[in-house]
Specification:
Elements (H helix, E strand, L loop, with lengths): L9 H13 L4 E6 L6 H11 L4 E7 L15 H9 L6 E5 L5 H7 L3 E4 L13 H11 L3 E4 L7 H7 L6 H11 L4 H12 L2 E6 L1 E14 L6 E13 H10 L4 E8 L3 H10 L4 E6 L6 E8 L5 E7 L6 H14 L5 E6 L7 H10 L3 E5 L19 E5 H8 L6 H12 L3 E5 L5 E5 L4 E5 L12 H15 L3 H15 L11 H9 L4
């Protein structure tokens, strides 16, 4: 198919517009996702074109779109072609960043035009519009707002059933009967003001993408060739990172080794988090390295660097910190990976003294058979997957509802969430004797690592801020579905993304 002459790269477009401006032509710039082209977009662009001579539209690339579940519907190429097909549009390009700032700096439009729904800058959670406005003013341009009727692509897609299955949509309809968008925003405000302590192991997750060569000629072993590494925060550090995406006041209590390279990485990733680290000179930071086949994206091997020897001093320091400070926090989120950081004395003190606690006790290859939630008997809120639950109960056959009831009764847990992969999640509220099932929102799975961290991060905050626990489980499930699509803990939870997702089905 012949290339559309309206579609340009930034460099070529800059040169074209420079020539036009020398001829005193007024350049108009609009920017957006334009995932579902609707009458609101067409009227907006027609209004924008009427204010100048040439209309340029820049498009947000797929990788930067954070509009909620299963977005975008149409990829970057398709959206470029759709906009280019409009009569009023003279040129279209993709933005190299998540906002329009670089496009504005390069193209230097006379006017940057947004829809009327962006006019109140106090509602700009992302701060993008404010920064774009400053950039426009620096190049001596003006930001203007159209007065066309407001449409929501997300709302249209939801109402037409294009982004959710019938099961998912029915569940969302049920949720919308118990809460409206304003009440949801009020919950978010309460969440943002919570003072939260996250406690647990700091883990460095490293993925080494490799070429699988095959079996060695002399030994029965798999031979691989290392290509490139990507590194993420894992463990409780990932939980702290995600909670900081929503909360203003987040402390993180953990221990790390002496390695400068990891300290620097952790500090970079945990900006604006108050880090209370116990430094162990004679022990390394926990590193979990996974070798991944670059073609199939399948994990080939895991190599863990874990040294929980001589951890008693760290235990004592953590205990003493909690003894003095535990009452300062509205919520304590425990992400216990079972590598020795939290001993029995610490776990029982948290349960007895914390104002509010949310717990996840990880079962993994390093601690299986030794790590148990029984140490946290009496916890208010607990999240666990079905495999972990059945292992805890040593029961692989009893129906899940009966098992949940017994587990909560034996351990005096008040609220329990059991995740079930593609079958969603079950919420059991003991005081109400109530079961609620939230459907899964994942469409495919690339990497499960970090999914539980995301669930714990989001759900714990909602449980601390509202008695409408179903909303919290839904929010956690939505973000967890996104984390399954990428390796590691790449995407961080954000207030703006939560608002966008819930605005698709709440009034």
């Amino acid at each position: 198919m012949k290339a559309n002459p309206k579609i340009k790269n930034i460099k070529n477009l800059t040169e074209i517009l420079q020539r036009l401006k020398k001829k005193n032509k007024r350049i108009i710039l609009c920017h957006g996702v334009f995932d579902l082209l609707h009458p609101g977009h067409i009227r907006h662009l027609k209004d924008a074109k009427s204010r100048g001579d040439y209309l340029v539209v820049s498009i947000t690339k797929d990788e930067f779109i954070k509009k909620g579940f299963n977005r975008p519907v149409f990829n970057t190429k398709e959206r470029l072609l759709s906009i280019a097909a409009l009569e009023d549009v003279d040129y279209v390009c993709e933005s190299p960043t998540a906002d329009a700032i670089k496009v504005i700096k390069n193209l230097k439009p006379n006017y940057y035009i947004k829809g009327s729904d962006y006019k109140n800058l106090s509602l700009d959670d992302t701060n993008k519009i404010k920064l774009e406005k400053k950039t426009v003013e620096k190049i001596k341009g003006k930001i203007l707002f159209t007065k066309t009727p407001i449409y929501s692509s997300s709302k249209i897609l939801f109402d037409t059933g294009k982004i959710f299955t019938d099961t998912q949509k029915n569940y969302l309809d049920k949720i919308s009967k118990n809460i409206n968008l304003q009440k949801f925003k009020d919950i978010l405000k309460r969440i943002q003001n919570l003072k939260v302590l996250v406690i647990g192991e700091t883990i460095i997750d490293k993925y080494t993408f490799s070429q699988t060569i095959g079996k060695a000629s002399k030994d029965p072993i798999l031979v691989i060739k290392e290509k490139n590494d990507i590194v993420f925060l894992g463990g409780a550090a990932s939980v702290a990172q995600n909670i900081k995406g929503i909360c203003r006041n987040v402390d993180f209590l953990s221990e790390i080794g002496p390695e400068k390279i990891y300290k620097s990485f952790i500090n970079k990733k945990l900006k604006n988090v108050n880090k209370i680290f116990i430094n162990r000179k004679n022990s390394s930071t926990i590193v979990k390295k996974r070798y991944v086949d670059e073609i199939s994206n399948r994990k080939l091997l895991g190599v863990y660097n874990i040294d929980n020897s001589n951890i008693k001093k760290a235990n004592n320091k953590i205990y003493n910190f909690l003894k003095q400070n535990i009452k300062k926090y509205d919520l304590i989120v425990v992400s216990d990976y079972g590598h020795g950081l939290i001993d029995n004395k610490i776990s029982q003190m948290i349960v007895k003294k914390a104002n509010n606690i949310f717990l996840n006790c990880q079962l993994n290859s390093n601690n299986i058979g030794f790590h148990s939630m029984k140490r946290y008997k009496g916890s208010k809120n607990v999240i666990i997957n079905e495999t972990e639950l059945r292992y805890e109960m040593r029961d692989n056959s009893t129906d899940i509802s009966s098992l949940i009831k017994k587990f909560c009764s034996d351990n005096k847990f008040k609220n329990l969430i059991v995740t079930q992969g593609i079958n969603g999640a079950i919420l059991y509220e003991k005081n109400k004797q109530k079961f609620t099932t939230t459907p899964a929102f994942a469409v495919k799975v690339i990497d499960k690592v970090g999914t539980g961290d995301v669930m714990l991060s989001v759900i714990s905050l909602f449980f601390a801020a509202t008695k409408n626990h179903e909303v919290g489980v839904l929010a956690g499930s939505m973000f967890a579905s996104k984390s399954l699509l990428k390796f590691g803990n790449e995407d961080i939870v954000s207030v703006s993304e939560l608002k966008k997702f819930f605005s698709t089905f709440l009034n």
